[in-house]
Specification:
Number of strands of chain A: 11
Number of strands of chain B: 11
Oligomer: heterodimer
Radius of gyration of chain B: 13 Å
Radius of gyration of chain A: 13 Å
Helix content of chain B: under 10%
Shape of chain B: globular
Strand content of chain B: over 45%
Order of helices and strands of chain B: EEEEEEEEEEE
Number of helices of chain B: 0
Largest sheet of chain A: 6 strands, mixed
Largest sheet of chain B: 7 strands, mixed
Distance between the termini of chain A: 41 Å
Number of helices of chain A: 0
Strand content of chain A: over 45%
Shape of chain A: globular
Structural class of chain B: mainly beta
Order of helices and strands of chain A: EEEEEEEEEEE
Chain lengths: 112, 114
């Protein structure tokens, strides 16, 4: 079965720096990969979707890359702010393509 | 944007009783909804896929007789935890598929079984 690994449970950076989060998968190549933000006690909020034939996607201060050879996606937040502090979840479609499965998430803390 | 609403946000029930959680898509129709469970500091674990007008598809290890799912309309899916026990205490989250492959999540429902 597919395993999704997000490189670290916690990441601490200073305000203004770029945060880089990693998501690796081990099995089949997903048709698309998504990144979500989750605040404590809340449901996940969709951020970006990148398809297997796309190398990079941007949205404001967010950038996602997708390398199907390395089986890896990188999620970047540039000019980070304390308000970016949250848990970021990587998700991809299950093999049947019917549902999303999630990594454990990386909790980002941005200090001022 | 698309909104998914869950109710109740939190519920406390006695061991052995049943509790129902509702998931509604407020401004779009969702033929497919999903139910997840999340324990503290853990990933969202997919429990089942709910299809309007048909039986839900459960993930391996999820007891379908314990977690009853009904998707009676294009905007409503319900999860009933039957004969709840303390180990069922968790954060239950639903989601619905919108246009394209975008999945919208509800705010989650905290269940505490005492």
């Amino acid at each position: 079965s597919q395993k999704i690994e997000q490189n670290s449970e916690a990441l601490n950076i200073q305000e203004g720096k770029t945060a880089t989060l990693t998501c690796n998968y081990t099995n089949y190549s997903p048709a698309y990969l998504q990144w979500y933000r989750q605040d404590p006690g809340r449901g996940p909020v969709f951020l970006l979707l990148i398809r297997e034939n796309e190398k990079e996607k941007r949205k404001e201060r967010l950038k996602v890359t997708f390398d199907t050879t390395l089986k890896q996606s990188l999620f970047h937040i540039t000019a980070s702010q304390p308000a970016d502090s949250a848990t970021y979840l990587c998700a991809l479609n299950n093999q049947a393509g019917t549902a999303l499965i999630f990594g454990k998430g990386t909790t980002l803390s941005v200090s001022s | 944007g698309a909104v998914v609403s869950q109710h109740p946000s939190w519920v406390i029930c006695k061991s052995g009783t049943s509790v129902k959680i509702e998931c509604r898509s407020l401004d779009f129709q969702a033929t497919t909804m999903f139910w997840y469970r999340q324990f503290p500091k853990q990933s969202l674990m997919l429990m089942a896929t709910s299809n309007e007008g048909s039986k839900a598809t459960y993930e391996q290890g999820v007891e379908k007789d314990k977690f009853l799912i009904n998707h009676a309309s294009l905007t409503l899916s319900t999860l009933t935890v039957t004969s709840a026990h303390p180990e069922d205490s968790s954060f239950y989250i639903c989601s619905a598929r919108g246009t394209g492959n975008t999945i919208y999540f509800g705010e989650g429902s905290w269940l505490t079984v005492v």
